[in-house]
Amino acid sequence: MPFAEIGDHATRIRLHYRTDGSRSRPCVVLSNSLGTDLGMWHAQVDRLAADFFVVRYDTRGHGQSDSARGPASIEDLGRDVIALLDFLDIRKASFCGISMGGLTGQWLGAHAAYRIDRLVLADTAAKIGAAAGWNARAAQVRASGMDAVADNAPARWFTPGFIDREPGKVARMVATLRAQDAEGYASCCDALAHADLRESAGQITAPTLLVAGEFDPVTTVADAEWLRERIPGARMSLVPASHISNVEAEAAFTRAVLDFLLA
Ligand SMILES: O=C(O)CCC(=O)CC(=O)O
């Protein structure tokens, strides 16, 4: 499993990543949501790799990537992507991020436009939730570990129908969440507490697709509409799913992303 060493001697972390497809193709980077890892893209990878060089990575504090010491910021997460592209010698890539990954994408689109080809912002918002909620969640996992957030994750992530129909997929996602490093997860809750990209949404110049789950109570269709109205020329696609829409509506999600990236 490859790792990219990024940062200087004071900030160095190892970022776990994986590539699929031929390097000769255009690159697309896939960025996971809070409490998941690069495995969340399982249903998309083979199809995307037929047309793209697919780079997936575990956001810092998640999966096999290191956590930096102390709270993270969305800028840190965005700079990690730039460092990963530098490490892989890729000048420009398309980027697709879910929820927290979508915030990373918004930061990249506004602050590193020269590295971004097309942008897919999925199941996300310019500001997700309220700082008090994220601070409470960070404190909870720091004090008690991951079980408290893992036990009720299915109801936050998926519709009741999907939870009934696909217990295996739901159980795998919950197991990944339960296994996360509590400090790494908490440091990304810290990033979410402070993340407010409402001011910079209008600075995004890359062609952008918003993907929203019709039944998502966390980052709603209205949140995606808000971004669509402010990002010049942005398009939007609704998929029949709750928050983790690439898992719940895998075919519709893959189709929407491919149609946009290949247009
Ligand atoms: O999914 C994310 O990246 C942020 C929103 C979230 O944490 C959903 C949840 O687990 O409650």
From TrEMBL:
Species assigned in the record: Massilia terrae
EC number(s) reported in the record: 3.1.1.24
Keyword annotations of the record: Hydrolase
GO function term, MF aspect, one: 3-oxoadipate enol-lactonase activity
Family annotation (Gene3D superfamilies): alpha/beta hydrolase (3.40.50.1820)
Coiled coil stretches, renumbered: none
Domain of life: Bacteria
Alphabetized Pfam families for the sequence: Hydrolase_4 (PF12146)
Protein name as annotated: 3-oxoadipate enol-lactonase
InterPro entries: AB_hydrolase_1, AB_hydrolase_fold, AB_hydrolase_sf, Hydrolase_4, PcaD/CatD
Every Serine aminopeptidase S33 domain range: 24-237
Keyword Hydrolase: yes
